[in-house]
Amino acid sequence: MFNKILVANRGEIALRVIRAAREMGIQSVAVHSTADSDAMHVRMADESVCIGPPSASQSYLSIPAIIAACEITGAEAIHPGYGFLSENAGFVQVVEDHGLTFIGPTAEHIRIMGDKITAKDTMRKLGVPCVPGSDGGVPTLEEAKRIGEEFGYPVIVKATSGGGGKGMKVAQNAKEMEKAFKTARAEGQSNFGNDEVYIEKYLTTPRHIEIQMFGDGKGNAVHLGERDCSLQRRHQKVFEEAPGPSISAEERARIGKVCADALARINYIGAGTIEFLYENGEFYFIEMNTRLQVEHPITEAIFGVDLVREQIRVAEGMPMSFTQDDLDINGHAIEVRINAEKLPNFAPCPGRITQYHTPGGLGVRMDSALYDGYSIPPFYDSLIGKLIVHGRDRAEALARLNRALGELIVDGVDTTVPLFHALLQEPDIQSGNYNIHWLERWLETNL
Ligand code: ADP
């Protein structure tokens, strides 16, 4: 059993891990930049270490500083949260070389899934259905144009190292290919230091359906159903729900088994998410995230499990605390991402919180690191809170979300809360009738 773990992150996800550790009787160590000295994760952890100046590259991404913080405090394991170093295979290697435990998958699995071409190739060989497209990387514009003709436009050019919606460009026709190809390559190079791209058929009306996975690293893996994350702006999720309103129990069991068999075969350890586009009753793999995701609480709500606790357990070498047969869905959950952003352009809006009041009551969970008088620093992600509601069915979850949003007070900065008030009035949201393009189209005419 670990005595002490270090949380290599900040904000709500750092709190999430500290809470799980405390319930397990494990001490927690927070790390922070100088901009985060007053942050809630620093206050809540048992110990804290300042690891550098505000810039993430010199603090939350500084591998030597984080390893040093472990040595100083005697932490035996590191939980990376999401973002920052969570999918950095080199980091995992360094952690292990120092005799510490990384709470997450192996460096090898992170490396495979972090390169989208290799990930697709691996998944295809494991029997997972993929989006039709190029067979690996596409090195030249001529080749790109040939693939566009072969699969038929529209197609999407994607950087193999891409993430966070960056490095993806759609070509509606042959004329647009040159620009899409060059831009995706340039974005891949400037954001991820890799200009290799591949091409996929661009699906026109899919939903984004992702399957929550969990493995013990010893050949056992289970799925915890799907989340529908189709409501996106610039390929970034803003509203997620589980189960997916369009997925039947039979489809869930079918795709879930394909995914669980695939991860069992590679001895996957810990939490992971296999992302699909879902159109006309078919699933098409797009990528796998080898970490805990922002939207994991909606899965926790409907299955009644603590995914962070499970991550810590399997990292210690313990078995998973459930089998596939133990996992039953109970009700419906929705998460909305509350960002410090000014509508209608979603411009980041850091600043001081003058008043903060969280909603409560049955089926309401607010994961946030805010407090009265806290100043949101301008250096990091604009996510300041996640409001998660759970109801006996979708209608109850929607009503509860509406009620909880009405109770929430975040004064001093602009937030995305008004967006959710407006979305809840929409018949398509009420009925669950939306795909990955719905929100962008709605924003064009409604904000
Ligand atoms: P990232 O790693 O940047 O998040 P993903 O590969 O997960 O990129 O894709 C993010 C989003 O981009 C998807 O949820 C979907 O909305 C859109 N997308 C990706 N691939 C396709 C495709 N082949 N057709 C249509 N939309 C796509």
TrEMBL record:
Keywords from the UniProt entry: ATP-binding, Biotin, Fatty acid biosynthesis, Fatty acid metabolism, Ligase, Lipid biosynthesis, Lipid metabolism, Magnesium, Metal-binding, Nucleotide-binding
Q: What is its EC number?
A: 6.3.4.14
* UniProt domain Biotin carboxylation: residue ranges: 1-444
Q: Which InterPro entries match?
A: ACC_Biotin_Carboxylase (IPR051602), Acetyl_CoA_COase_biotin_COase (IPR004549), ATP-grasp (IPR011761), BC-like_N (IPR005481), Biotin_carboxylation_dom (IPR011764), Biotin_COase_C (IPR005482), CPAse_ATP-bd (IPR005479), PreATP-grasp_dom_sf (IPR016185)
Catalytic reaction list: N(6)-biotinyl-L-lysyl-[protein] + hydrogencarbonate + ATP = N(6)-carboxybiotinyl-L-lysyl-[protein] + ADP + phosphate + H(+)
**Keyword Lipid biosynthesis attached:** yes
Q: Which GO terms describe its molecular function?
A: biotin carboxylase activity
User: Which residues does the UniProt record annotate as the domain ATP-grasp?
Assistant: 120-316
Write down the superkingdom of origin. Answer: Bacteria
Which Pfam families does this one have? Biotin_carb_C, Biotin_carb_N, CPSase_L_D2
SUPFAM superfamilies attached here? Glutathione synthetase ATP-binding domain-like, PreATP-grasp domain, Rudiment single hybrid motif
- Protein role: This protein is a component of the acetyl coenzyme A carboxylase complex; first, biotin carboxylase catalyzes the carboxylation of the carrier protein and then the transcarboxylase transfers the carboxyl group to form malonyl-CoA.
On subunit structure and binding partners, the annotation says: Acetyl-CoA carboxylase is a heterohexamer of biotin carboxyl carrier protein, biotin carboxylase and the two subunits of carboxyl transferase in a 2:2 complex.
Q: What is this protein called?
A: Biotin carboxylase
Organism name:
Sulfitobacter aestuarii
Phylogenetic placement of the source organism? Bacteria, Pseudomonadati, Pseudomonadota, Alphaproteobacteria, Rhodobacterales
